[in-house]
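Section 3.1: Structural characterization of target chains.
Under the original work plan, the team committed to producing a structural model for every single-chain target entering the pipeline before any wet-lab resources were allocated. The record below documents one such target. The sequence was received from the expression subgroup and is listed exactly as submitted; it comprises 156 residues.
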Amino acid sequence: MPVTQTADIKTTSGENFQAVQTGPLTELNNYKLEIPGLKRTATGKLFLKEFLGLTSMQISMNKLPAGVSVPFYHQHKENEEAYIFIGGKGQMQIDGETFDVEEGSIVRISPNGSRTVRNNSTDDLYFLCVQAKDGSLNQETFEDGVRGEKQVEWPN
């Protein structure tokens, strides 16, 4: 299902990297996600896959205003998700189980988990959501990482 992400962000790229500067989290409401197939527009959500050229995951930055909840449950066909809460307080509901989340909470959900989130506080709730194909990580970080021989030098 095609979507259109409206975002005025700064990008930097090189041979082996792409970087974005999205601005302060408090300004996430400036981003709009158009979902024509669902006749829906979402604000406060920024998908980063296209901006970063991601090939094995999707990352979204999210702002859920005080008193707002996602009005539906969702699952995935292939992707697990990790919700990383970076500000505020709220609640998640997964397969009918409700629990509190706050800055520092991290929740992993398998594709079949039926999930939703709400902000039942008086402050905005901020979180990152990372999606990747379930079972696709086939090595540990320390097995995959290779230490470079070049000496680190920082400009003054």
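The chain has a mean pLDDT of 91.
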